[in-house]
Amino acid sequence: MSAKKSLPTNLIEAIRYFSDLDICTDFVAELRWPHGPHCPDCGCVEFSYLTTRRLWKCKACKRQYSVKVGTIFEDSKLGLDKWLPAVWLIANSKNGISSHELGRALGVTQKSAWFMLHRIRLAMQTGSFDKLDGTVEVDETFIGGKARNMHKDVRKRRVTGTGGKDKKVVVGVKQRGGPIRAAVVPDTRHATLHAHVHENVAPGAAVHTDALRSYSGLDKDFAHETVDHAEFYVDGQVHTNGTENFWSLLKRGLHGTYVHVEPFHLFRYLDERVFTFNMRELDDYGRFATVLRLAAGRRLTYAELTGQR
Ligand SMILES: [Zn+2]
């Protein structure tokens, strides 16, 4: 095992640190096997280590396994010396990074970079946790169908004024002083939004929404209050400023970095932005290590994810 160096704190240090494949292997091994390596087949903790090939060999079933097996890095020809800097870049990019940019930065093809991006985003999906409680903001926004870049005829067909057929509806649910969740939903109908709120918010919580009629009736199960965006003041503590901050971050990334996000991939992009937003209190190393733990398939509680313990 290689000698310990002090942990990286920025991109340059990370690239230098992870240029050594033995250090990469040790690093991922310690994250995914905090109590020592074990065979993914039979669970046996006895092994020999094949130094030159960086493989473990199970003493019981003789199977050889790498640190990549069972992680998002499995089946990839790219080495951890490419993967770990990629995780660092993606975990710490505020507005997102395109596959072209990532490919250039790592010296891999755009196709490889695209694949890495998607795998890493998959790791950033934090799954579902307990329902949000306390004061919870619920707000919707429309993504896509950018009219000004379209040809006039196309524009006529596609733009319908109220959000439009080609736009995707994204609903944000944010606990005041806590995490945000964002998801693509089919429409802004009463039934859709009510189901979404019930899935994500604990009964009895204070729910703040805008004045959209689809939200009416939430007061049966929640302490529902509405904000009228037409008003120039924020009515005391009733506001959706947290979700609106998130929308501006989201849209800045969409318009600046990503030329076009396929509707099919929008949810992955959302996961990435949600992660960045919820992890904004962590430093670069903290965000990197969090994504890496997720990538290595370790289950984490929300408290661990946010560093609250
Ligand atoms: Zn085994």
Detailed description of the structure:
With 309 residues, the protein is an alpha/beta fold. The chain is 38% helix and 14% strand. The protein has eleven helices and eight strands. The chain has a five-stranded mixed β-sheet, with helices on both faces. A three-stranded antiparallel β-sheet has the order 1-2-3, with no helix packed on it. Helix 5 packs across helix 9 (266-278) and helix 8 crosses helix 9 (266-278). The protein is elongated and about 65 Å long. The two termini are 30 Å apart. The relative contact order is 0.13. The structure holds zinc ion. Residues 39, 41-42, 44, 58, 60-61, 63 line the site of zinc ion.
Sum this structure up briefly.
The protein is of the alpha/beta class and 309 residues long. It has helices at residues 11-17, 21-32, 80-91, 99-106, 110-124, 152-158, 190-200, 241-256, 266-278, 284-295, 302-305; strands at 47-50, 55-58, 64-65, 135-143, 168-175, 180-185, 206-210, 223-227.
